[in-house]
Amino acid sequence: MPVTVTRTTITTTTSSSSGLGSPTIVGSPRALTQPLGLLRLLQLLSTCVAFSLVASVGAWTGAMGNWSMFTWCFCFSVTLIILIVELCGLQARFPLSWRNFPITYACYAALFCLSASIIYPTTYVQFLSHGRSRDHAIAATAFSCIACVAYATEVAWTRARPGEITGYMATVPGLLKVLETFVACVIFAFISNPSLYQHQPALEWCVAVYSICFILAAVAILLNLGDCTNMLPISFPSFLSGLALLSVLLYATAIVLWPLYQFSERHGGWPHRSQDVSCSRSHTYYVCPWDRRLAVAILTAINLLAYLADLVYSARLVFVRV
Known about the structure:
Subcellular location: Membrane
Helix content: 55-70%
Membrane topology: Multi-pass membrane protein
Strand order of the largest sheet: 3-1-2-4
Protein name: Myeloid associated differentiation marker
Family: Belongs to the MAL family.
Shape: flat
Mean pLDDT: 83
Strand content: under 5%
Number of helices: 8
Number of domains: 2
Pfam families: MARVEL
Low-confidence stretches: 1-26, 318-322
Order of helices and strands: EEHHHHEHHHHE
Oligomer: single chain
Radius of gyration: 21 Å
């Protein structure tokens, strides 16, 4: 749903706009010569080189290696689709809102490539012996970093600014929704082993918090991508404000309960990493349970801050329907 962003007001409008915050040449090869088109070509090239380097030597093994390879292949594929749509002028026929989809994807891609740029070298590259495979893996990491910067630059270029007509996902609350869902997905990856939380009802509650908040934020994103915000029984602004408040309250309980029951001896936790025997062994592509617990605690704090910022912006911005 297009929105006009003012200093403290977001006003729903029915204006049409071609592009993501700036005019674009629709259905022409000249679209590739525009700054945004050149930036997307850089994204396409860097992700293609990253997965090609790794694939040529088979330098991806285990969950972390598979995650990195998936990231580069996925980002390459979707970026290619976006370029084809813009080159052929198919924005009107695209099944999702073109005002919201490209910047939503660019934000996710920046976070995906950032995670791959950190995870791949720390869990895989450092364990490789010197040689061709290691050189290719290091080069792939460098191109992953370039892709991350390119996607982040697109987000910075196309995000909502005062006086512009754009989609909700280009606003700060919209981008925070992307961050919230991405962090929740990473949390789910770390708690994929049920033994980390099934022994305590309080920890199961934390998992329920992560799931509930993820679903609500994902629904908000999907409603915008599908231009279906008018399907809610309440106004979309009210839904956003209620979502942010509820998520803050739920995450406030998780930020207390997760560390308390994971790291307090009184509640059956392990305060020191040395108490986890599995962490004393050096394994390639492996993250020990204690490190997973710590990672989830940190990510819970990050998401709580994101929801707090979301709540602040939702309270400051006034939505006026036309």
